[in-house]
Structure formats: structure tokens, C-alpha cells
From TrEMBL:
InterPro entries: AB_hydrolase (IPR050471), AB_hydrolase_1 (IPR000073), AB_hydrolase_fold (IPR029058). Keywords: Hydrolase. It comes from Paraburkholderia elongata. Pfam families: Abhydrolase_1. Signal peptide: none annotated. This is Alpha/beta fold hydrolase. It comes from the Bacteria.
Length: 284
């Protein structure tokens, strides 16, 4: 088996009722596939090959773009439940009976909704850099984050480094290495997300972050599947306290917080995280 399946797996398309979702599938057959969801405006180009190639040694890996993202058809929905409904339809269209989930940031919110709406499909869940519905500081971006997003005369790569990594030289260097890894694949790449995607996802994030009048974290206790929660010490995108909230309210959750890191902690410690993820999915 090639050691870089992430780099060579072709993009495929699956119809879900008149709309096709773009995806890549690779890895060792025989175990439940791990279906992976991306962050705000991210495409399947943005997954770390160190993570996905390691997981692919043990099981199938499926990277999928939401409706309207990359080469997926249609328009991005403006709610997490609508996006999760697409993913559930996609999984069923592939004929899968049991899956694991790996969601980063907005993808972690989608993963939570998928397991709430189709618990019979999901065996285990890995949540990175994300938070629960109605979490702390999730209603809107902080002034610090908004200033980075709106910064003039900066590249998307420069803004991503400041949003995902801490300001230390070590963290920044790890961030640059990650950007190089996800840019290494030169063929069959997905186009960048269109403005409609960002607009719809911002609305979806605001809805997800709204604090309910009662039973703020009530849905979490319904998620019985074993879960691994991962974040950095100081996540400015989805405040790190939300990782602790997830661990405290999910019935069977483990928590890993990496030092000197932020939203992209799992990219900063890619090999360590990849081994933790592989162990988590493989454990009895």
C-alpha cells in the first residue's frame, strides 16, 4: 500500500438526491471507515496528510466536502442540522452501516449533529478544535479574531497561521510546515470555497453558538459513543474552555490539550496526534 494515499486518491462524487458531494476514499478495508469533516470554508485539500495517511494504515478514510464546497454541487446550507442531514444521506448512499467521525472546528459541530440525528450509524467520534451548541464565546468571533480575518494586505495563509497557531516561533514554524503539507498535492485539487460558503457558514455558526433558555448542554448527554476531544492551550477561534465542557458533559469522553498551541493544535503536533487518533479508533 502506498504511504501517501492522501496525495494520490482521486476525487469521486456521490449523488444525494440530485446534488453530488465530492469525496476521496482510501485506506485499508475491513474496519469501520472514518468520515472526516472540515473547518470554516475548508475543503478536502486542508486535511493533514500525516493524520489521514496514518489512519489509512488501519481503516478506510473518507474525506468529504459539504454541499456547495469545492466541487460539491448545490449551495452550502446555513445550518448545522441541514449540513448533517446531507452527510447522513451521503453515508447511506455509500451503503455504509457503521462509521467513525472526525470533525475539526465547524466539522466537529457537524459530527455532533450527525450522531444526534443518526446514532445507529456512529461508533466513535473525534472532535478537534470545536465546541458544543450554545458553548462559551461561540455566538460570534472575538474582536481579536475579527481583526485577523479583516486584516488588509495579508494572504489567506498568513491569516490562517495567526488564527490556528500560537505566537511562539515553534508554533508558527509548525503551522508553516502544515501549510506546506496540504499544498503538496498538485493534481485533482478542489477549488477554494466560494463567498456563498462563508456567508452560509457564518449564519450556521451563529445559530449553533446561540445559548438556549434552558438545558444548555442537554444534547451532549444523548451522545453515548466514545469520544476523543482535542484542542490547544489557547484556541482563539473556539475558546478552549469548550473542549473541557464537551469532556464534562459527554458520557464517555477523553480530553487532550496540547501545550503552546491554538485552534490547529493537531496540526502542530501531527505525528503525536495521528498516533493518538489511531489508538482511539482501534481500541476495544
Amino acid at each position: 500500500m502506498s504511504s501517501n494515499l492522501y496525495g494520490s486518491a482521486r476525487t469521486q462524487f456521490q449523488d444525494i438526491g440530485g446534488v453530488s458531494l465530492a469525496y476521496r476514499r482510501f485506506g485499508k478495508e475491513g474496519a469501520p471507515p472514518v468520515v472526516c469533516f472540515q473547518h470554516f470554508t475548508g475543503t478536502i485539500n486542508n486535511f493533514d496528510p500525516i493524520h489521514t495517511n496514518r489512519l489509512a494504515q488501519d481503516r478506510p478514510v473518507i474525506l468529504v466536502d459539504y454541499r456547495g464546497v469545492g466541487r460539491s454541487g448545490g449551495e452550502m446550507p446555513d445550518s448545522i442540522p441541514a449540513t448533517a442531514a446531507d452527510i447522513i444521506a451521503f453515508v447511506k448512499a455509500l451503503g455504509l452501516k457503521e462509521i467513525d467521525l472526525f470533525g475539526f472546528s465547524l466539522g466537529g459541530m457537524v459530527a455532533q449533529q450527525v450522531v444526534l440525528d443518526a446514532p445507529e450509524l456512529v461508533r466513535r467520534i473525534l472532535l478537534a478544535g470545536t465546541g458544543p451548541s450554545g458553548g462559551e464565546g461561540m455566538q460570534e468571533y472575538t474582536p481579536e479574531v475579527q481583526a485577523i480575518v479583516d486584516r488588509p494586505n495579508s494572504t489567506p495563509q498568513e491569516r490562517t497561521l495567526d488564527l490556528f497557531f500560537s505566537k511562539s516561533p515553534t508554533s508558527y514554524a509548525a503551522g508553516k510546515a502544515w501549510l506546506e503539507r496540504i499544498a503538496a498535492r498538485k493534481v485533482d485539487r478542489e477549488p477554494e470555497a466560494k463567498p456563498q460558503v462563508a456567508e452560509a457558514q457564518l449564519v450556521a455558526l451563529a445559530k449553533w453558538g446561540a445559548i438556549p433558555a434552558t438545558d444548555r448542554y442537554g444534547d451532549l448527554k444523548k451522545i453515548k459513543q466514545r469520544t476523543l476531544v482535542v484542542n490547544g492551550k489557547n484556541d482563539i477561534m473556539v475558546p478552549t474552555i469548550n473542549a473541557y465542557i464537551l469532556q464534562q458533559h459527554l458520557p464517555d469522553a477523553r480530553l487532550i490539550l496540547y501545550p503552546d498551541s491554538g485552534h490547529g493544535a493537531h496540526f502542530q503536533f501531527p505525528k503525536e496526534f495521528a498516533e493518538e487518533a489511531a489508538r482511539f479508533f482501534a481500541a476495544a
